[in-house]
């Protein structure tokens, strides 16, 4: 599993000292002779722009085979959009209204199949994929499993209401994921509609929309009257253009499971989003711990399709079992190999269940992007009163320096909830509780996801502890 820095340097034909330097930037103090774990090694390989196929663990560990597409093979792909916001603010209605703008559906009169995602063709001929499960739970669940399929988040806020708890949660989750946001102020047909009030409230969360001279796109829409839908789609396409979303369509497919179920007649069914390559009927595949062959594929209009391109959602028939949302589907060259990989993963999954490795600082920082010049120390803060929360946030921000910055993923008042835990887990952050404790469900999630949780009653104990952890990242040498 582990490899010394020098050995990795040799394999990449790079200088050991350069790897040490890169590791330092990632927040790890190691010498060339020390060993680093697989995740860190992979980050380094990517950082140096190399492609390696691991030979250890035999060839079955396809998860760790780093295989990057050459730039000239990349072609533009449609954006994948998730809709988030408070309950009853109109997420489902907006998803339905957007679905109604699909020119293909208009022409062919296709029937709607809820497969977890759908794709529309705009009047201009562009494609946009929407995840059909609104809300940040699904979004964060996927992130916790290492799957980042969303390119753009639409934050839905009802213009006759205000920023509600789940609106704030959605903002925090989106920010933590680093995904660009478009604000849709919906229910524009209502007499109480007051979009300006929403824009002003968003400022408090450091979201400055275009109408307030900021750079976050916002749009006034109504799912009922359909006003603003075209504008929303235009803004999505504009954002997608800025992101320069690309994938290589001419290779063995890789896809992410969006949802999966067991159908009495058809057997296991999984909706996947193709990440790269083209998924074809007849392809041999591995997904999670299951192997199989694509027997048939259905799109969101219930039509049989033979191929699926990057960003396309399709329901796949022919998998040997029911995979989990967030699992990666990979096409392999033979059935023998598919079974081999599936068996290997099963073994690994069993081994993982029997070992209990608490989330460590190392894990936390190895997850950080090597490209970040300043290291971020993410935290989730909860306290019993607003005054304390503000005091803690201020005190924590003061601990930041040129090399390491405290990043408050969210700060709030009240008991620690499932949403706090999922946010912390997805970002590898500890939760800091001041005079508050987790509720029962949150406690269970903390244990399951091995999230680090610290309680304090005195603010300077809290800042001392965090300062110590931050210093620890640099090792005793500094
Ligand atoms: P969700 O919980 O965020 O998915 O919200 P829904 O889409 O279920 O909408 C909640 C309620 O608001 C429903 O009664 C909808 O009919 C209503 N609603 C949603 N969008 C609009 C809109 O644009 N205009 C009006 N007048 N009502 C809307």
TrEMBL record:
One annotated Gene Ontology cellular component of this protein: cytosol
Q: Which residues of the full protein are shown?
A: 263 to 740 of 839
Q: Which GO terms describe its molecular function?
A: GTP binding; GTPase activity; translation initiation factor activity
The identity of this protein, by name, is Translation initiation factor IF-2
* Keywords per UniProt: Cytoplasm, GTP-binding, Initiation factor, Nucleotide-binding, Protein biosynthesis
* Highest taxon of source: Bacteria
Residues recorded as binding GTP, renumbered to this chain, are: 85-92, 132-136
Give the primary localization class. cytoplasm
State the compartments where it is located: Cytoplasm
State if Cell membrane is listed as a keyword: no
Q: Which family does it belong to?
A: Belongs to the TRAFAC class translation factor GTPase superfamily. Classic translation factor GTPase family. IF-2 subfamily.
Query: Which intervals hold domain Tr-type G?
Result: 76-246
Q: What does this protein do?
A: One of the essential components for the initiation of protein synthesis. Protects formylmethionyl-tRNA from spontaneous hydrolysis and promotes its binding to the 30S ribosomal subunits. Also involved in the hydrolysis of GTP during the formation of the 70S ribosomal complex.
């Amino acid at each position: 599993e582990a490899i010394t820095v020098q050995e990795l340097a040799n394999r990449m034909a790079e200088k050991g000292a350069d790897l040490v330097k890169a590791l330092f930037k990632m927040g790890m103090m190691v010498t060339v002779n020390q060993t680093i774990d697989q995740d860190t090694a992979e980050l380094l390989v990517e950082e140096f722009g190399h492609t390696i196929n691991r030979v250890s663990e035999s060839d079955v560990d396809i998860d760790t085979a780093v295989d990057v597409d050459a730039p000239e093979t990349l072609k533009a792909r449609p954006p994948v959009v998730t809709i988030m916001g408070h309950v009853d603010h109109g997420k489902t209605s907006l998803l339905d209204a957007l679905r109604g703008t699909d020119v293909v559906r208009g022409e062919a009169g296709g029937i709607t199949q809820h497969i977890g995602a759908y794709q529309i063709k705009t009047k201009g001929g562009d494609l946009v994929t929407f995840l059909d499960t609104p809300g940040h739970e699904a979004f964060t669940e996927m992130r916790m499993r290492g799957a980042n399929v969303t390119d753009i988040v639409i934050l839905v806020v009802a213009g006759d209401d205000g920023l509600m708890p789940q609106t704030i949660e959605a903002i925090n989750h989106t920010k933590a994921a680093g995904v660009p946001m478009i604000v849709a102020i919906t229910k524009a047909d209502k007499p109480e509609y007051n979009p300006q009030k929403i824009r002003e409230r968003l400022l408090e969360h450091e979201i400055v929309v275009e109408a307030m001279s900021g750079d976050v796109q916002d749009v006034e829409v109504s799912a009922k009257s359909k006003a603003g839908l075209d504008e929303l789609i235009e803004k999505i396409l504009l954002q997608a253009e800025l992101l320069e979303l690309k994938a290589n369509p001419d290779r063995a497919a890789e896809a992410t499971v969006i949802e999966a179920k067991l159908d009495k007649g058809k057997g296991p069914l999984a909706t996947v989003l193709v990440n790269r390559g083209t998924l074809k009927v007849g392809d041999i595949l591995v997904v999670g711990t299951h192997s199989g062959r694509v027997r048939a594929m259905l799109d969101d209009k219930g039509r049989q399709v033979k191929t699926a391109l990057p960003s396309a959602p399709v329901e796949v028939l022919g998998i040997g079992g029911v995979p989990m949302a967030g699992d990666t589907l990979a096409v392999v060259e033979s059935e023998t190999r598919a079974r081999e990989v599936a068996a290997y993963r099963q073994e690994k999954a069993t081994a993982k269940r029997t070992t209990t490795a608490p989330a460590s600082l190392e894990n936390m920082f190895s997850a950080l992007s090597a490209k970040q010049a300043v290291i971020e120390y993410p935290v989730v803060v909860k306290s019993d009163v607003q005054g304390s929360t503000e005091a803690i946030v201020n005190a924590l921000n003061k601990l930041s320096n040129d090399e390491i910055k405290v990043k408050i993923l969210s700060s709030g008042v009240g008991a620690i909830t499932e949403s706090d835990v999922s946010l912390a887990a997805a970002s590898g952050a500890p939760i800091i509780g001041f005079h508050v404790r987790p509720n029962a469900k949150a406690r269970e999630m903390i244990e399951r996801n091995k999230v680090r949780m610290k309680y304090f009653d005195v603010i300077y104990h809290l800042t001392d502890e965090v300062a110590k952890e931050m210093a620890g990242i640099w090792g005793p040498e500094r």
